[in-house]
Amino acid sequence: MSRSLSAALAAFVGLSAATLSAADYNLTAAPPADQAFQVEVQLKVGGDITIRDPDAKPADKPPKDGEPAQEAVKKLPMSVEGKLAYEEAPLADKQSARHYSVAMATIKVGQGGKSPSLPDGRRLLVANHTEQGVKLASPGGPLTREQLDLVDVVGGTPFLDGLLPGETVAEGKAWNVGAEVMGPLLGLDSVSVCEVSNVVDEGAASYVKFQVAGVVHGEVEGAPTEFDIRGLGLFDRRINRVTRLNLAVKEKRSLGPATPGFIGVAKVNIKREPITKPEFLTAQAMQQARGNSLDLLVLPSKDLGFEFHHDRGWYLASTQGPRVSLRRVHEGNLVAQATLTRMPAKAGVKPSLAQFEQDVRANIGAAMTEMVSSGEWVNQAGCGCLGVIARTKVEDIELEHRHYLVRSPEDGKTVSLVVTLAAGDMAAVADADRLLADAARPLGAKVAVKPTTKPAAK
Fold first, then answer.
1. What is the 3 state secondary structure string of 370-422?
2. Could you tell me the CATH number of the domain that includes residue 423?
3. In the predicted model, what is the mean pLDDT of residues 418-447?
4. Which residues lie below 8 Å from residue 132, measured CB to CB, with a gap of 6+?
5. Both 206 and 242 in a single domain?
6. What is the per-residue pLDDT for 17?
7. Is residue 2 part of a domain?
């Protein structure tokens, strides 16, 4: 055999061996429709947040013509260590039930810190699978914003299998993951850039490891956000599901209309294992989950002496003793601001609508252009309510001021609610302000609140 023929044959044999050694893997999710899982999530976050500074002094110089006013902000170091453990089982199309056996975190911001957790009555949640990610609701009663933030983390389990190509790929072969997967996986309201590519790392008879890498840009609650992602996933070939996902996410989030900015890194480790008989998601729990789940949140305030059930468009802006400020966001824009204030108690004195209307007129003064409406009613917690809506015009901008008084029927404690919005945002706000008054109740009241949608009396 000639040297040249021997070399050619050796090259052919080597090429064939290399070709045969590159294994092919079918990475298609095909799980049982009724499969339940035990899920564990470990979360570590470190970085800096940017928040509005309510104590800042006004700017020395007003903004130049055509330039927006600069908000006073401050930057604080922030860290989070959290752990979640829950059972998850299919409930309906694009819906699952969860029971959290563990939900805790240690959060440090600046010199302060807190450790939120889920109370026993809120451990059963319903997870709705939407284009913006997992939207959690509680059949046991409304969550606080803090409790919702505790369990609303990146890496929603219903979207893990979307990281797969849905076809057979070879080891070392890459595939792209679209915005329709990465958006909800990261909890983005919208996606403007999605450049994520996965590749098979290694495989065996029972599993395939794949790498995840790329960038995703979008918006969260009106704040432009950039993610730089690196991670490793595990596809279980026995059950045809992604059962592990470890992500390191560099995040750059701008200051939003009602939410902090953030620059830092989050590390998320997700593990889910199939279970045949859930311990907590019993038939009774599943039946409860199929009932009415509250999409509302609750804002309790000891200083005000009340709690307020509200939709998710309201965000807490600041708390200063007996004064609470809220901001409302609609489709990523700030559309209203609300201030809740504890009023001085006047024993035995029940405020009248006529006097309240007079007080509103005096408070607004010469800027008022129209008294739109006024009314008196009793909300579903039995509290007496007064409402007055007036309009002003400031530098060609028409504003609407919606004033409410809510009075406890038991001890006469009274809270004032003032909502301010531009006339152009009336459709976006609708009656969200009225619902705050309708859903107010004294702390500790044993009343089921179901906010009405009836407009204030004209």
1. EEEEEEEEECCCCCEEEEEEEEEEECCEEEEEEEEEEECCCCCCEEEEEEEEE
2. 3.40.1000.10
3. 91
4. 183, 184, 187, 188, 189
5. yes
6. 39
7. no
3 in any annotated domain: no
Return the structure tokens found at 272.
């889910």
**What distance in Å separates the CA atoms of residue 420 and residue 363, rounded to the nearest whole number?**
14
pLDDT confidence tier of residue 71, bands split at 50, 70 and 90: confident
DSSP state of 40: E
Where in the sequence is the domain holding 411, given as residue range(s)? 297-442
- The pLDDT assigned to 8 comes to 40
Q: Is the pLDDT of residue 169 over 50?
A: yes
Tokens, residue 56: 């800042």
How many other CB atoms are found less than 10 A from the CB of residue 417? 24
Contact between 223 and 254 under an 8 Å Cβ cutoff? The reply is: yes
pLDDT above 90 coverage of the chain, percent: 79
Place of tokens 């959690």: 136
Instruction: Find the DSSP H helices in 234-352.
Output: 283-289
CA distance 404 to 381: 16
Residues 6+ apart with CB under 8 A from 391: 368, 369, 370, 372, 398, 399, 400, 401, 423
Rounded Cα distance between 370 and 397, Å, is: 14
Is the domain of 349 the same as that of 237? no
Q: How far is the C-alpha of 420 from the C-alpha of 394, rounded, in Å?
A: 13
Locus of tokens 């809510």: 406
Instruction: Determine, yes or no, domain membership for 345.
Output: yes
- Residues near 97 by Cβ (< 8 Å), separated by ≥ 6? 88, 89, 91, 124, 125, 126, 127, 281, 285, 286, 289
Query: Strand (E) positions, 2-150?
Result: 24-27, 36-52, 73-92, 95-109, 112-114, 124-130, 133-137
CA torsion 233-235-236-242 (nearest 10°) is: 80
Q: Decide if 456 is inside a domain.
A: no
| Same-domain status, 356 and 390 | yes
Percent composition of the chain: helix, strand, coil (DSSP 3-state, to 5): 15, 50, 30
Residue pLDDT, tens place only, 345-389: 766 678 899 999 999 999 999 889 999 999 999 998 999 999 999
Beta bridge partners of 92: 95
Tokens of 185: 């996986």
Three-state DSSP class for residue 271: strand
DSSP string, 117-135: B--GGG-EEEEEEETTEEE
Is the same domain home to 275 and 352?
A: no
